[in-house]
Structure formats: C-alpha cells, structure tokens
Amino acid sequence: MEESLLRVKEIGKHFGGLWAVNRASLDVARGSITALVGPNGSGKTTLFNVIFGLHKPDEGRVYFNGERIDHLAPHQVYAKGIVHAFQIPRLFYRLTVLDNMLLAARGHKGDGLLNSVVFRQGWQAQERELADKALELLNLLELDHLTLSPAGELSGGQRKLLEIGRALMAAPVLLLLDEPAAGVNPNLGRKIFERIELFRQRGLSFFIIEHRLEILFDFADWVYVMDRGKIAIEGKPEEVAKDSTFYKVYLGD
Amino acid sequence: MGLFVYSLDIIVFIGIFAIVALSLNLEYGFTGLGNFGKVAFFLAGAYTYAILMERTGIPFYLALIMAMLVSAGIGYLVSLPALRLREDYLAIVTLAIGEVLRLVVKTEDSIAHGVWGITVPPAIHWSGMSVLEMRMVNIGLVYFCLILCFIFFQLMTRSPYGRVLRAIREDEVAAEALGKNRVKYKAQVFMLGSALAGLGGGLYAQYMQYINPYMFLPMVTFTVWIMVIVGGPANNWGVLLGAGLVILFERGARIIKDYLLLPIDPINLQYILFGVLVIFLLAYRPQGLLKERQLETKAIEGVQKWKNRSSE
Amino acid sequence: MGVNWAQVLFNSAVTGSLYLIAAVGLTLTYGLSGFPNFAYAEFMTLGAYMGYFVVRQLGFDVYFAFIAAFLACGILGALAYRGVFRFLANRGANKIHLMVGSIALGFVIRYIIGDIWGWPATTFGIRWPGFDIGPLRVTDLWLALIFTALVLAVIMHLLLTRTKTGKAIRGISSNPELALASGINIERVTLVTWAGGAALAGIAGLFWGAIASLSPLLGWAMILPVFAVTILGGIGSFYGVLAAAFIIGLAENIGVVALTQLGLSTEYRMAIAFIILIVTLILRPQGLAKAFRRT
Predict the structure, then answer these.
(1) pLDDT band at residue C259 under the 50/70/90 scheme
(2) CB contact under 8 A, B164 and A94
(3) Predicted pLDDT of residue B14
(4) Does some domain include residue A194?
(5) Could you tell me the pLDDT band of residue C73, with boundaries at 50, 70 and 90?
(6) Do B32 and C281 touch (CB under 8 A)?
(7) Statement: residue C169 has pLDDT above 90
(8) C97 in reach of chain B (CB within 8 A)
(9) Hey, are the CB atoms on B275 and C270 less than 8 Å from each other?
C-alpha cells in the first residue's frame, strides 16, 4: 500500500457499557478512495465521529499526516484538512444554498469580528472569488439554478448533493463521506461517485461509508468491513466480495 | 408638564431600550442564544455607571465605557460554564444571574445604598437647565449611541461574520464541522451583547438620575424579549420597530391607568396581553413583523454574473 | 453562641422537603418535554393563593386549602401543556421558543394573580405555635411538610417502579423512540406528568406561603433553588432530585449559619443555590442522575 494519510490505531469508544467501536485500526492511503462498510450498528458512524472530533475516543489514537488529532475539536480537525459530510445532511436550512457553500470556505477573512466591522475592504475581493468557486462547484453538482434559494427548499437528493458540495468547498485533503449515495436514485448515486472519482484524480483522498455496494465496489480502492465495533476483513473490493465471512457479517449468522 | 415634553421622555426610553433589544437580537435573533437574564447586564451597566459617577470625578463617557466593560466581563464569566452545554442551561444560568446580581445590590448597602437606591449626577448640566433642555440633551446622547450601535450591528450581521452566527444558530455542530469555533463565536457574541446591554443600562441610569434594585426586575428582560419577538428576530430594523411599539404600548397603559377606571389595572392587563401576544406570535408568526432578510454581500454580484453567462 | 446542629439538620430536612415537592414535577416534565418550564414558578404561586383564597376568603379549614391547591394547579398544568406547549410544539416551536413561551405564560399567570389578590405580601393569618422535641424547636406545619415529602417519595418510588405509567415516564425521558416502539401512550403519560407535577408545585407553594408569606412573586423567588435542585439531580431523574433536594437544603442551612458567623446577610441564602448550580454545570452537567440510574 501507498503512504498512509490517516491512521486509526486501536480506537475504542463506548456509550454506557456498550463498546460501539472496539479497538479498530485502519489506514487511509493518500489519494485513495477507501471504503468502510458493515451492517447497521457496527460502529461506522461512531468511528467517523471520533475521527472528525465530535466524540473523544476512550482508547487509541488517530493520526493525520503523522500528527495526532484525536484530542482535537471538530473545527481544529477541519483546520488540519479533514472535512466530514453527514449521513443525514445537516444544512443551514434558513440560509441560501450559496451561503451554505460560502460557510465551508477555508480562511475567509470576513469570518473575524474585527474584519467584519472595521477592515471591510480586506475581504470583499475574497468574497467574490469564493462565490465564483462556489458557483463552479454548484454547477458541477447541478445545483447552480438554486443558488439563492434557502437550503430548506431543496429536495432530499439535492440536500445530499449540497452536503457533499459544501465539504468540497472546504478544500479538504481528506473527505469523510457518510453514505453519500443513500436515499438518492441509483443514477444519481452513480453520478455522485463519478464526481468523487473526478476529485480523486485532482488529488483529494476519500474515506467513505456506503451501503450501496454495487456502486461503491466499482470505485473503491480498498475496503474495510466493520462488524460489532471491530474491523473484520479488509482488502481490495473484488477480494472482499469473494470472502465468505463478508456475507456472514452482512447477512448475519 | 406639556405633552411635548412627555413625548420626549418616551423617545429617550425607546432609544435606550432599542440598544438593549439590538443586543438581544444579536444573541438570540442571529446566534440563537437564549439569554433570559438580559436585566443582569442592564443592571451591571447601570450600577457601574451610577457608582463611578457618584464616587469618582471621571467624565461620563469614560463611565459609560466602564459600564460596557464591566457588563462584558460579567457576560464572559457567565458564558464560561454555559456556552459549552445545551441551550437550556444558558437560559437557566442567565436567568439566575439576573436574580443574584439584584440580590447583591439590594443586600450590600456599601455598594450602592441597597434598597435606598443611588443618585446619579447628570452627565451634562448647566445652571438653570430646564426639563425640556435636559431631555433634549439625553435624546442627543442616547440616539448618538443608538446610531453607532445600529451601524455596528448592521455591518457585523451583514458580513461573513454574521453568516457564521446564523449558521451556528441553525446547526452548531455542522458549523463546527466546517471549521467554525462555536464556543469562541458564542463567547464573542455574548460579551458584545452584554456590553451593549451595559451601555443601555448606563444611559438609563444617566437619564433617570436615580436607580434602585426594584428597577431591575425580571420584567425588564421580558420586555426586551417582546421587542425582539414582535419586531422580528435577526432583523435589526424590525427590532427598532419592536422597541418603539412596546414602549408606546407600555406608556399607553400608564396613561389609561391615570384617566380611565377599568375593572382591571391596565398595567397588569398590559403584561397579561404581552404574554398572550408572545405565545400567539411564537405560534403564528415567529419571524415577527419584519422578516429576516437574506445576506447580501459581494457574493451576490458573482451570482448575477453567472446567471447572465449561463443564459447567454 | 453555639450552633444547635440538630436544629440545623432538622431545618435542612424542612427545606429539602419543600424543594423535593417543588422540583419533582419540574424535573419530570423537563425530561419528558425537553425544555425547562419557567412558568413553574407561577404554578407554585397559584398554589399559595389557592390556600389564601380557601383559608382567608372562604374561611375554610387549611386541609381544604391543600385539596384546592392540588386540583387548581393540576388543572392549570394540564391546560398549560395542552393549550400552550403542545400547541407551540405542534406548530414547530424550537426549544428556545418553548422557553420563551413558558416565561410568557408565567407573566400571564403572575399578573392575573397580582390583579386578583394585589401585589403587597400577605399571610394566611394562621399561627403555627412551636414546641420542643428534645433539642428541636418544631411546628406542626414543618412536621406536616416533612411527612408529605416522605409520603411523596414513597408513592413516587412505587409509581416509577411498579406501574406501567411510571416505567413509561422513565422510559420516555431516556429513550423516546424505544418508548414509542413499545406501545406506550406518550401523549397520555406526558399529560398526566404535567398535571401531577403542577399539582405538587401548588402544594409546595402552599407550604411556603404558610411558612413565610405570600406575594405574586413567591414562585419566582423560589425558582432558583428549584432549578438548582433539578440540575444537580440530573434532568428527568426522580432519585436524583430526591438526593439533590436534601443536599441543597443542607447546604443552604449550613450556609445560613456560616453567613451569620461571617457577619453577612442571610439574604445570600439564595446565592448558595446559585453557586451549586454553577459548580454542577462546570463539574458534572449531567447531574447526579447517573449515580441513581436503574433500569
């Protein structure tokens, strides 16, 4: 395998007496599309939450670019270059699609209190540039006709796209996508993954939870299968698909 | 006293409460922080101003600035335990601080003569000053501050900073995942909101020329909330309107009390009606009289250009 | 002068009993409906004024006052839930809206009470002569209060552990989806809790009105310690509140001794609850509930 960008080492996280993630270890290679699959309740989303800083792990460590990040808050993890797109889109529903996109932008000078009131000239040009960037992405996701609509007016599929678009807007190094193709029609699902592939070619790395294996396995480089908080199997998609334990994990014993 | 001079009194009050209501609008309307102890910061400002003016010879504008700083400091202390927790904890803590601060100034005679209250020397005074002149001076002072505050709030909320605040209001976890340090933003907002409430308090003490603990009952907080809810949360113009309407309504009730004999005390009736009104507004028009407007920045120009390009 | 520690302990039990009765409904409705109901203060006030109405205006015995307070506040609680909070929630109100709504409702009730019975403080006009038991000076009223709290604790315990409704109350607070799936009638359970809780708040208000005095601000003056008890106990937890009520009762009474010895005003009694509230939020925002959680 190539160089590891994200390294999860023996992570454990429990709620009450239940270990949602139980000493899971894995690596995401730089420039890869790495997949995390497994039945519901196997701990995938909890693991993502630990990686992007929403939960503090009870055990283990997370490294990004060789640096420990498991003690950081989400906004600090973002600053390191990891951006997370939620499974159920968490948009700012009363704000416009454009505002949703602009909020994800990295290093906007206008986000500071003093700049917002006193040094207003400092960010006007940046605001324009970011708008152009947002519009390009929205165009790519076929949302550009909705730019000034409140995000609350979008359909389910469009919300999903905006959630992903927002994450892309953040110019991440690594994108954590929690079920990007869930709840959208199969055509759109495949289209989403085609876009993901496009951005991978531009140098982004992806770590993706997905249940729609028929699409996922066409795009993923490496697959981790999670079961009851542990990594049960890992391998190339075609290897994993042949593995008999894989079906046991998914369909139950 | 003539009607004209009386109406000047109303104008001063509208100005003072508009400042406090704008500060609550920043906290609640834009950022989604439920501050139920607005009166605490109003009180802190009023007492800081009163004590400094009574005991020291500093110019009144320095006393006003101190009033803002002290209120901001208290706001910061209050925000420390509560801002990291769920929104209802902030509500409880702020409500409690209002009661505790009032208790302290009421009990400790050495701070500001306890229940006897404290007399505040006027900021600007000349011999033979009439009531009319005094009120005109206050209108000048209050509205100077109000206009500054209003411009400040408009610039702040109609910028990428204001966008971040709205995002925190909508979904703070999502905002955090997009790199916004929610605790920092909320603490800033809370300190600013408290500072401006403190400014309102200082101006109030300066205008009244006498304050006592009974002027800082929870109904002050409630009145300010009504202004924001009636006028329109997250709309600064709406909040100005709300402040005007609520003060006029309050004064109307007092005038009616003096001239009409009703089976129910008009001041009691007024608060009963306010309560009912708030519940109905929350149910049927939570956006208030003037709705929140979309953010308009340079980014909109980009959208126009894009639209023109794609329609060609 | 020496401190009569037995008396301090007894007084703590009195205070704790009062807080327990006052806070049970608040914590349970907070847990069920997800927001603190600030109009709770006015439920207590109404209870006290029902007592005033029955004893002073109708001239009935004080026992009838308890029945009147219990019924009037129970009905008020049910109306508040159905007429205001469920109504607002159905119309999409968020948590802050509900809290603002509860403050608004509180104002409505407070000013109606103020208009009917006037703003100056008053009393029931009943004297409760003190007598000595060993080193303790007690009154019938205090003993009745402690007895009521004990009975309440036993009934609540049986209710929560033995009956379907009680188990449901605990179930809904901790896991609403599971409760829904298990076929509990959430709506009915919530309504019963609101009514019962408000009725108990009325009883607490009545006791306080009898012990001290009553004014339309009675409930508001008690809201701080009652919220401190709720937070310290852990929202939605009866056993947490049971412990927290007596902890804060003890802290306040020891605090009063300390304040007196330090030469400070005993008015700061209220600030003690505030300090406990803040320290709880900093150190243990989930309250004591976990220590008392049973399944």
Answers:
(1) confident
(2) no
(3) 96
(4) no
(5) very high
(6) no
(7) no
(8) yes
(9) no
- In this prediction, residue B184 carries a pLDDT of 93
- Contact at 8 Å (CB) between C60 and C243? no
Neighboring chain B residues of C91 at a CB cutoff of 8 Å: 282-284
The answer to whether position B107 is within a domain reads yes
Greater confidence, A131 or C127? Answer: A131
Neighbouring chains of A at 3+ CB pairs within 8 Å? B
Size of interface B-C (CB pairs under 8 A): 118
Q: Of the candidates B293, B68, B26, which has an alpha carbon nearest to the alpha carbon of residue B156? A: B26
Neighbours of chain C (3+ CB pairs under 8 A): B
Under an 8 A CB cutoff, do B107 and C227 touch? no
- The verdict on A47 touching B (C-beta cutoff 8 Å) is no
Give residue A1's pLDDT.
Answer: 45
User: What's the confidence (pLDDT) of residue C176?
Assistant: 66
Task: Give the pLDDT band of residue C295 (cuts 50, 70, 90).
Answer: very low
pLDDT at C294 over 60: no
pTM: 0.91
Judged by phi (left if over 0) then psi (alpha if -120 to 50, else beta), residue C147 lies in: alpha
All residues of chain B having their beta carbon less than 8 Å from the beta carbon of residue A113 are: 156, 161, 188, 192
The complex scores an ipTM of: 0.90
**Could you say which of C88, C100, C271 has the minimum Cβ distance to residue B225?**
C100
Distance from the Cα of B122 to chain C's closest Cα (Å) equals: 32
Give the span between the Cα atoms of B46 and B53, in whole angstroms. 11
Residue A158 domain flag: no
Q: How far apart are CA A119 and CA A117, in angstroms?
A: 6
Q: By C-alpha distance, which of A108, A24, A98, A100 is closest to A58?
A: A24
Residue burial C280-294, b: 16+ Cβ < 10 Å; e: rest: bbeeebebbbeebee
- Distance between CA atoms of B268 and B156, rounded to whole angstroms? 38
pLDDT at C179 over 70: no
CB C19 within 8 A of CB C226: yes
> Is residue B62 within 8 Å of C259, Cβ to Cβ?
no
- Contact of C144 with chain B, judged by CB distance below 8 Å, is answered with no
Enclosing domain of residue B31 = 3-217
Which candidate from A94, A106, A128 shows the least CB-CB separation from B299? Answer: A128
Report domain extents, chain C: 5-292
CA distance C103 to C96: 11
pLDDT value of position A193: 92
Out of B155, B170, B306, whose CB is closest to A117?
B155
Asked if C35 and B275 come within 8 Å (Cβ–Cβ), the reply is no
Domain contains B248:
no
Domain count of chain A? 1
A228 within a domain of the structure (yes/no): yes
List, for residues C194-220, the tens digit of each pLDDT value: 999 999 999 999 999 998 889 999 998
Q: Is residue B110 part of a domain?
A: yes
Please give the tally of structural domains in chain B: 1
Q: Which of A125, A10, A139 is nearest to A63 (CA)?
A: A10
Q: Does C268 touch chain B (CB under 8 A)?
A: yes
Residue carrying the six token digits 């009319």 = B132
Q: Which domain holds residue A75?
A: 4-86+174-180+205-251
Whether A10 is in a domain gets the answer: yes
Of B305, B70, B312, the C-alpha closest to B198 is B70
On chain B, the residues whose CB falls within 8 A of the CB of A112 are 161
| Residue at B108 is within a domain | yes
pLDDT at A250 over 70: yes
Domain C5-292, what fold? ABC transporter involved in vitamin B12 uptake, BtuC (1.10.3470)
With an 8 Å Cβ cutoff, is C266 touching chain B?
A: no
Whichever domain contains A212, its CATH number is 3.40.50.300
CA distance A135 to C74: 57
Start-to-end CA span in chain C (Å)? 49
Contacts of B97 in chain C (CB under 8 A): 274
